[in-house]
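Aim 2, interim progress. The first record below pairs a target sequence with its structure tokens.
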Amino acid sequence: MTEVKDVINTVGRRKTSVARVYLKLGKGTITINNRELSDYFPLETLRNLVTQPLVAINALESYDIKVNAKGGGFHGQAEAIRMAISRALVELNAENRPTLKKEGFLTRDSRMVERKKYGRRKARRRFQFSKR
């Protein structure tokens, strides 16, 4: 027996970004760190990244979404938000899972920046070698 929740809470991560999403039925407003989506992400491509899961299941104006995002840059935060929204939609309705899984929205992208090593200029770049 499943409980009907008023607000669904999920987490999405990408690089060093963490996004906590609170999803509930509503009119389709997306608020990120107490700012509107268009204010927080001025670029159209980043706004499209965030709304991709809602467009995939045709629910763009069905849910109100409140997001707390921290860490990383704009692109990493946008992808973390996309993953958290996808997880919330699956938790809300399990029938959304095949559609979102096929698009790759539920897969955690584990690629991180490689750390700098001592004795080198960057993570892999060595200092210039002088033979003489």
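The second target in this work package is listed in the same format:
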Amino acid sequence: MEPSVSLELAKHTLMMLGIILAVGTFSGLIARLVRIPDVAVFLLAGMLLGPGISGLVNIKADSTINQLIMIFGSSYILFDGGASVRIKVLKEVWITIVVISTAGVLITAAITGVAAWYFLGLAPAVALLLGTVIASTDPATLVPVFKQVHIKDRVAQTVMSESAFNDAMGAILTFTVLGIAMGAGEFSAGDAIIDLLKQSLLGILIGGILGYLAAFFISHEKFGFLAEFAPVVTLMAVICAYMSADGFHSSGFMAVFVFGIMIGNQESLGFKLTRRENNLLEDYVITTAFIMRMFIFILLGTQVDFGLMNQYLLNGVAVVVVFMLVARPATVFLCALPDRRAKWSFSEMLFMCWTRETGVIPGALAGMLVGMKAPGAQIIASVAFIAILMTILIQATTTKWLARKLGLLVE
């Protein structure tokens, strides 16, 4: 009896997932030995496994399994990051977070757009579209870095929160500019602000409600009958938070991040897990988050299109250098310096200037533009990949060194 095509496909996919797990485990060990964030090693390993070099793993960016891993993996990593945030710290720095994740995205996009216009010779609307695609920071990259490199609380939590909150702004801005570039619309600041508020507030509301309910049924003294099933409840609730927010056309990533904040601050809500149950939940979250970032960044590495990157390599690198060394510092200083409540030091702002890795979200936006055959989509995708590689391999690997130099590392 001939095996069915679907069975053979399932076996092939299972083999590739097994390869990713094996290589990812070894890569994680290497990262620990050389003391750098594992996402950088995962990315390099993915490039070696992908069609461009060995061809051992070939999972298309637009495939169902890739989209599933990217959406759920990013959501779970973001939930993990939210659980690390303390409400007490957020109260001190919330103004900076709001400004840098809204106006900051506009500043970064504008400066990067000018660089793209100058170095790549793009039309102004297409250049700005490129700027908007890579303007938002990436939570799937930043959260793991700060899990491994222990930075001063308020700095780490500000950057992680920004990465969670600015994905909505980045997406709204990208598709607004896309409408202009394709001649299908005009920019309306009022509509963009209303859309942003709707996506943000609904995401916060959904994440807050689900987070409170999960904490209630896990940790309530009388009604916490799901305490022993806390890991499974969080898994289910992360999916529910993302899908509920997405169903209401709001920010799914914001919803899972707020859900994580609620779970991580259960004591502030009047709930408390036993030590055994808390340790069980922590071990589960740490292991699951490790597996998710392993899959995300190895897959991201396999999908790097070397041929496309080479077409615009030198000018693309120039754009990304401006993006890293001009756009991000301008954004941080313009958005954080006026916040008198937070009283940021120069060292703290300098560190935030350097930590703004690009990853899954910008990569996904670039992929969507290619699928839609948007103006300049191939160039945008090329520069997006260059930005992902440069920021992860350069910035993520030097985060600990810079934090130590600036006196922000917590040993």
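The chain has one domain: 62-405. This observation will shape the mutagenesis plan for the next reporting period.
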